[in-house]
Amino acid sequence: MNRTLKAAAAAAAIALTLAGCTSPSKSPTATGSPAGTSTAIKESTLRVWAGSTTPITIDFNPFHVDTALYGTYGQLYEPLFFFNQLSSDPPVPMLGESYTYSADGKTITLKLKSGVKWNDGQPFTADDVVFTMGYGPNKTDKLISAKATDDTTVVLTYKTAQFTNESQLLGATMMVPKHIWSKIDNYMKETNKEPVSTGAYVVKTTSDASYTLSANPNYRAPVPITNVQFLGIDSNQSGQDLLTTGQIDWTGMFIANPDEVTASGAIGTMNQQQDPTTIVTCSDASKGCKGDQTDVAVRQAINVAIDRSQLAEKAWVNLVGKANPAFVLLPRDAQWLSDQSLAESPQTADAAKAGQILETAGYTKDAKGFYGKNGKAISLDLFSPDGWTDYNDAAKLIAEQAGKAGIKITPRTVSEAEYWTPVTNGDFQLAMYGLTQSIVADPFSNYDQYFNGLSTAKVGDGPTRGQNYSRYSNATVDAAIEAAGATNDQATKKAAYAKIQAQIAVDLPYIPVVLNASQAFFNVKNFTGWPSDDNLYADPLPYLSVAPAIVLLNLRPAQ
Amino acid sequence: MKFYLRRIAFYIITVWAAVSLNFVLPRMMPGDPAAIMIGKLRRASGGRQLSEEVIRSIYALLGADKNMSLWDQYLAYWGRLLQGDLGLSSTRYPYPVVELIANALPWTLFMVGTATVISFVLGIVGGAWVGWKRGTWLDQLVPATSLLQSIPYFWLALVLVAVFAVQLGWLPIVGAYDPFDFPSGPEWSWEFVASALQHAFLPALTIVISSVGGWLLGMRNMMVSTMSEDYVLTAEAKGLKPSRIRDRYAARNASIPSLAGFSIALAFVVAGSIVTEQVFSYPGIGKLMIQSVQGLDYTLMQGVFLVITLTVLAANFLMDLLYGLIDPRVRNDL
């Protein structure tokens, strides 16, 4: 069905993923303010399809992480800093000016920009930050106190070290005005049709087919693109048609033959490979998982039996990147890779090695050529959501490839609704599954979200924190994650990551397949200043949080 | 009079049964809407722990009250229904289902309704004509239109879009009106009506192309058999004008079975044309239905099904009454 939807769901997740990073006390200047252009800005409209479907229901509530419209995060509401997931550069100031962490990581001192106004004319002050940090879903019992020491300084004190929450607290918490939200009693029921925010845009018009944001006259810098119209479109084919006929200027979706779209020269494209696509296994029998995949030898055998280069070519027309078993994003996170042999998962099939692994573990081949133990052949079920054609194709190919190595896998598709429930509850053997890459140049959130024993639950329950659906639980890994989260020292952290990587690359609760492709398409004829491979100042995917707002401020209408 | 009373009583019971079924079905499905919504929020927030407050407020708004007996829930359901309250959608949270349906229904009635009427009129007039001229080259129209009907609809729609909207650029690709000219939505102006008509043309055309064959075939065959009736022969013997025989004698009687089919077709207009609305991003009921099923949005599903059921019943009721009026035999026999 609609691949963009899937990407969009992941996008919201990216924006809110916990992550760790070094804390710069001084940050570079904001991007996006045109250098000394004093001439009046020409009216221009940029049309975006970020993935909204019709009918559009107007909702600019930043606490509706699932249903808020695109543009809410970044264009309307702003966080304190922008964390660019494409680079390891320090965060860029937005509402914040700078921040410092105390040595133990429990106290954060924030310096805010002065003179910023909400779009209703009221000044943005430290009180608003204090209010936001303790409001609604931002509330946490880890926060001891939030104090405004003066109009532009906030001191946050926590019970535990917050190094790894940096991008969450400073890059994904949207600042809301105290004078509005303190009067709203049920923020979950609010649709916030006239948002009072600080961002570069304000809401101009809305309808069930589209909504338009226009430049905020009170914004602290010139806004070069005066109108941004977000459209609701229901199929990728329609999106592609509107793009090629020049009716939309910016979109992010999977197009198998991008050359066809870019041939005219009016449309530019960028393909980022970030999020790992994996085979998630219900790996831990002690947590209640059932099936042959609970034996680590079976997972290891599948890992070498699959032909990733063939998968990339046949299921993803070679648009995807190479995955690695250390779950770091290369080259961005190269400094965190402990062992060069983990830089890439095997790209070709090695049936002999798979057989060897299984035979060492006591499996034998039966008359039909399938491995088994105690007279029972290995038989695994691999499912993916119907209509996610890349996953469906990949699952079929994986089953074929594993079959050649003597491992019986049966691929199956289920409806999207029937996909999430078993994955969440652990009622599965193997499933095609996408992980969300850490938003900052540090793999911490990958490990904490997906491999931490604290992030999982017994089969039958869903995890309350994290998304460790593999039910993986390893004391060494858990201890290393805790150690990494409590420190800001590079060497200590790297040592902890080395322990984690050594364990998960052997245990393989998630068998890495490829790095998913995220394609952005944009009109280079009418607008200039898009991110490029040489200048990755922000991710050009319009469905992400915050990054699109940075891109918009860097664009110029073509002369 | 007794006939009408009986029919009315029958329909009251049917409506009660349909509405009650609509109450029971979602409760037989696995999972409750609040749990599904919390699961979705959990994924959307990247695994961040949801605060107790969020969970409580979702249960308060979407969850079934566990302290209420099924009977009390049933009474409350009727109470809400009679006030026109169908609950809140979970995929388009916190929008009320009634609002979503009210916005989608006019578009579906306009586009699918017009297309159904055009298709019917074309089929009946064409069928009468082909039947009248039976044995001539016109008979070729029957297999030709049937062939069009047998083309997979999805493919037909995509081809028409690729040719007329993308390559030639004559017609718009998606939507019910031009969002670029009318960024603030529908308004009462000639320009807007023109835009809406232009946008409805291609989707309506695909519906007509793929359904006219059925009407044409049925009408043509009825026409041929009616024309061998004695009263047509009598009319010819009386020396009536052929056009009068064709229109007043043959076509009029031949169209009765098609009319019955038409009432059912009209009732199903409300269900929208799921594939058409999906291909053309047309904001109708069919698309709401597909979205609600994909997103496991039980309240929206319930609302859409209720509206469809009630319209089908209403259309049948009207047809029953009309039949009683047209054909006295129906009234007496029952």
Structure description:
The complex is a heterodimer of chains A (559) and B (334). Chain A is of the alpha+beta class. Chain A is built from 15 helices and 22 strands. Chain A has three domains: 180 residues, D-Maltodextrin-Binding Protein, domain 2, CATH 3.40.190.10; 101 residues, Alpha-Beta Complex (Dipeptide-binding Protein, domain 1), CATH 3.90.76.10; 240 residues, Dipeptide-binding Protein, domain 3 (Roll). In chain A, strand 17, helix 10 and strand 18 form a beta-alpha-beta unit. Chain A is globular, with a radius of gyration of 24 Å. The N terminus of chain A is likely disordered. Chain B has 334 residues and is mainly alpha-helical. The longest helix of chain B is centred in the middle third of the chain and has 38 residues. At the A-B interface, helix 1, strand 8, strand 9, helix 5 and helix 11 of A face helix 2, helix 3, helix 5, helix 7 and helix 13 of B.
Number of helices of chain B: 15
Gap from first CA to last CA of chain B = 12 Å
CATH topology of the largest domain in chain A: Dipeptide-binding Protein, domain 3
**Average predicted local confidence, pLDDT of chain B:** 85
CATH architecture label of the largest domain in chain A: Roll
CATH class of the largest domain in chain A: Alpha Beta
| Count of individual domains of chain A | 3
Question: Order of helices and strands of chain B, N to C?
Answer: HHHHHHHHHHHHHHH
Structural class of chain B: mainly alpha
Strand percent estimate of chain A:
15-25%
Report the portion of residues of chain B in β strands: under 5%
Key terms:
heterodimer; A: 559 residues; alpha+beta; D-Maltodextrin-Binding Protein, domain 2; Dipeptide-binding Protein, domain 1; Dipeptide-binding Protein, domain 3; 11-stranded mixed β-sheet; 4-stranded antiparallel β-sheet; 15 helices; 26% helix; 21% strand; disordered N terminus; B: 334 residues; mainly alpha; 74% helix; 0% strand
Secondary structure layout plus pairing:
The complex is a heterodimer of chains A (559) and B (334).
Chain A lengths: L2 H14 L28 E5 L31 E2 L9 E2 L2 E6 L5 E6 L13 H8 L9 E8 L2 E6 L7 H6 L6 H4 L19 E6 L3 E6 L11 E5 L4 H9 L5 E3 L5 H5 L4 E15 L14 H10 L2 H9 L4 E2 L28 H10 L3 E2 L5 E3 L2 E2 L1 E7 L3 H16 L3 E7 L1 H10 L4 E5 L9 H7 L24 H11 L4 H18 L2 E14 L3 E2 L18 H8 L1 E2 L2
Parallel strand pairs in A: 1-10, 1-11, 17-18, 17-19
Antiparallel strand pairs in A: 2-3, 4-5, 5-7, 6-7, 8-9, 9-10, 11-20, 12-19, 12-20, 13-20, 14-15, 15-16, 21-22
Helix pairs in contact in A: 7-9, 8-10, 13-14
Chain B lengths: L1 H27 L4 H12 L7 H11 L7 H13 L14 H36 L8 H10 L2 H15 L22 H38 L2 H8 L4 H13 L1 H14 L4 H6 L5 H10 L3 H29 L1 H6 L1
